[in-house]
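thought: fold this chain, then report.
action: predict
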Amino acid sequence: MIVLAMNYEALDISGDAGIRASGENLEEAFEAAATGMYSLITDLDLVREKSSIDVAADGESPEGLLVGFLNGLVFHFDAYGFMGKRVEIKEFEMKDTGQGRLKAKVYGEDFDPDRHPRGLLIKAATYHGLAVEKKDGLWSLDVIFDI
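observation:
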């Protein structure tokens, strides 16, 4: 599934940064949230799909799964310098109990400060203001990042 720029938007929050993402299902909305987060870090038009990484996450709720997923992506950026451009969720499971897990492939390249203008330094996705809800047939996600 390819996420287009129209599936996410930056939220104007005083002193913080956030993303509102949407999709026809949770997988699509999670992909949009991840791409939106990366767009806060640099200009995605300048990121090439030279390599990929696999990321897995678990959560006790849809909200916990989203935070765990995004923080896994932040970890890969902070620890290894991997900058995602496109995100594909390969496996997604959400049980009736709310517990979920996912596996995703992220396409991108190593962050290069000479080619990638530095945007925000995202430390983590937070539970503050976090929302995962279905409205008007679409899933909508709001997530605020610690910067």
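thought: worth noting. The first helix runs from residue 26 to 41.
final: tokens above.
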